[in-house]
Each structure stands twice: as C-alpha cells, then as structure tokens.
Amino acid sequence: MAMKSITLITVLVVVLAATQAKAQRLPAIRLFNITGNVFCSVNGSIAVNGTGIIPPPFPNALVQLSCNGILRGLAITNRAGTFNIVVSPIQVSLNNLLSSCRLVVATPLSNCNVTLPSNGTLQAPIQLAGTTVIGLLINITQFVAGVFRLIGAQ
Ligand SMILES: *[C@@H]1O[C@H](CO)[C@@H](O)[C@H](O)[C@H]1NC(C)=O
Ligand SMILES: *[C@@H]1O[C@H](CO)[C@@H](O)[C@H](O)[C@H]1NC(C)=O
Ligand SMILES: *[C@@H]1O[C@H](CO)[C@@H](O)[C@H](O)[C@H]1NC(C)=O
Ligand SMILES: *[C@@H]1O[C@H](CO)[C@@H](O)[C@H](O)[C@H]1NC(C)=O
Ligand SMILES: *[C@@H]1O[C@H](CO)[C@@H](O)[C@H](O)[C@H]1NC(C)=O
Ligand SMILES: *[C@@H]1O[C@H](CO)[C@@H](O)[C@H](O)[C@H]1NC(C)=O
User: What is the distance in A from the centroid of ligand 2 to the CA of 58?
Assistant: First the structure.
C-alpha cells in the first residue's frame, strides 16, 4: 500500500513537472551525441566497404573532436573500437559540426598493428544520424563518424 502511494506520488510529481515545463515552455536541453568505430586499418568502415570484410577494431585510441583546429571533445575507444563524444550546441553549432569539425585519432595507427604507419592521423567527417528526444526536457541529436582514413602518412 505504502509502495503504491509512493509510486502514485512519483507519477504525480513527474506529470506535474512535465505540465509545468510545458506551460513555462522551458527550452529542452540540447545535446549532440557523436558515435563511431575506429578500425585498425588505413580506411576502416563498416558502412563503406563493399567487400563485406570488416577490419579489426582499434581499441584504446584517443579520438578528438577537432573544429577548425580547436579541440571540442575527447573520447577513448573501447575494446570494440567504439567511441562516444557528447557536446553541447553551445560549444559547437550543428552547422559547424557538419562542416568544420572532424574526428581525429591522436593515437598512432601502429599502436594496434606494428605493420601499419606510425605517422599520419586517422580522420573522419561527421554525419547527421537523427534525433532522439528523451522525455520533454532533453533533445539529443545523433551523429555518426564517416570513414576514418589515414591522412598525412608518408
Ligand atoms: C550516444 O549514442 C550511443 C550510441 O547510439 C548511445 O549508446 C549513448 O547512450 C548515447 N548517449 C547519449 C547521452 O545519448
Ligand atoms: C582501403 O585500403 C586498402 C589498402 O590500401 C585498399 O585496397 C582498399 O581499396 C581501400 N578501401 C576503400 C573503401 O577505400
Ligand atoms: C575492405 O576490405 C578489404 C579486404 O578485401 C580491406 O583490405 C580494406 O581495409 C577494407 N576497407 C574498409 C573500408 O573496411
Ligand atoms: C596487421 O596488418 C597486416 C597488414 O595490414 C595484416 O596482414 C595483419 O594480419 C595485421 N595483424 C593483426 C594482428 O591484425
Ligand atoms: C612515416 O613512417 C614511415 C614508416 O612507417 C617512414 O618511412 C617515413 O619516413 C615517415 N614519414 C615521416 C614524415 O615521418
Ligand atoms: C531538437 O533539436 C533540434 C536542433 O538541435 C531541433 O531542430 C528540433 O526541433 C528539436 N526537437 C524537439 C522535439 O525539441
């Protein structure tokens, strides 16, 4: 019974908060969520390779969100080579993210495979992937990394 009341009160509070938020037209918190996979390859991508052969992942790689040369975010890839950078539109506008920002891997490619170049950086553009609205107050726009290609290796 007590449990039921608590649940009911919780529901009421949430509904009330939501109603108030709507009435006051509080702007939703906006976030940009950039995800991607880094591969142990000079040009790794799941999406682009028509051959169906996916190169191995690049774990523990430092991925930087670089916008006109300015560092806006950081992440380290997990064991599957996946990373996730969350930024606020206050830091980077949507247009900038798509036109002036790139994902740059600061860790040398040779770290995952010594036969690969130790100089140059893997770089990928950023692509819009859609919007996920969580509740009334949070608006998250999803972005994905394009193909990471090795730039500047000689
Ligand atoms: C960002 O996107 C990834 C992959 O879709 C997801 O796992 C993660 O929860 C998202 N983060 C936020 C804050 O939405
Ligand atoms: C990726 O690089 C390999 C080796 O340099 C090359 O054979 C292959 O065609 C490239 N694939 C793409 C999609 O660029
Ligand atoms: C595609 O597969 C080939 C092997 O056929 C591999 O050499 C290359 O790195 C892969 N490229 C991408 C973009 O995954
Ligand atoms: C390292 O790269 C070479 C050439 O790209 C490839 O033949 C080899 O299988 C790779 N080794 C590992 C452990 O992925
Ligand atoms: C880049 O690395 C290769 C070996 O992977 C080396 O032969 C070359 O001199 C290096 N280039 C520069 C500019 O450091
Ligand atoms: C979410 O934010 C985007 C821009 O970041 C905006 O275009 C869109 O209208 C917002 N959606 C909602 C439901 O607030």
Answer: 17
Q: Count how many domains the chain has.
A: 1
E-strand stretches of 3-148: 29-37, 62-67, 70-76, 82-87, 101-105, 121-124, 126-134, 138-145
Q: Which of 152, 148, 153 is closest to 126 using CA atoms?
A: 148
Task: Report d(CA 37, CA 34) in Å as an integer.
Answer: 11
* Cα–Cα distance for residue pair 143/65, rounded to 1 Å: 12
Structural contact between residues 32 and 89, judged by C-beta atoms closer than 8 angstroms: yes
Centre of ligand 3 from the C-alpha of residue 38, in Å = 13
**Which ligand lies nearest the alpha carbon of 39?**
3
Tell me which residue of 100, 90, 99 sits closest to 69, measured CA to CA.
100
75-100 pLDDT per residue, tens: 999 999 999 999 999 999 999 999 99
- Residue 18 within a domain: no
**Nearest protein CA to atom 12 of ligand 5, as residue:** 154
In a domain, 114, yes or no: yes
Atom from ligand 2 closest to the CA of residue 42 = 2
pTM: 0.77
CATH number (domain holding residue 42) = 2.60.40
